[in-house]
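Reading a protein record of the kind used here takes only a little practice. The record below shows the convention in full:
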Amino acid sequence: MLGFNSFREMEQLRREIDQVFNRMWPSTGREKWPLSFLPGVAARQYPRINLSEDADKFYVEALAPGIDPKNLNVSVVGNTVTLSGEKTATPGNVKPEAYHRNERAAGRFVRTVELPAPVNAGAVQAEYKNGVLCVSLPKADEAKPKSIAVKVS
């Protein structure tokens, strides 16, 4: 067939399914329906993260087991943090056709997260321990809460 591309057709079908799910359960800041089983969506959600804050810093904890820390990169621009790297395939001499199940993904990844306020990029710290990447991002001075004294007259 002239002009038929099965991969393009499958990608279009995936987009249409995504749209149906998004209409049924619109995003409210917390995902009501886990869409990570859909191709393309899961790729944008690796590594899985927790984002928290206190008065002085934001904290990003990213699940990244099995990654060589030399292959991890953290960059900060304004109020966005980008985690990138590469997860190598499990070493061994197993041929691809010998696998009965191969669920552990390998390859390059990039995850960009927008933070609620700007950070001091020069003071960001990152540590990788037990398969978790912990990034500490000090808030920029203008993003920290200010206490205003109330005068009594």
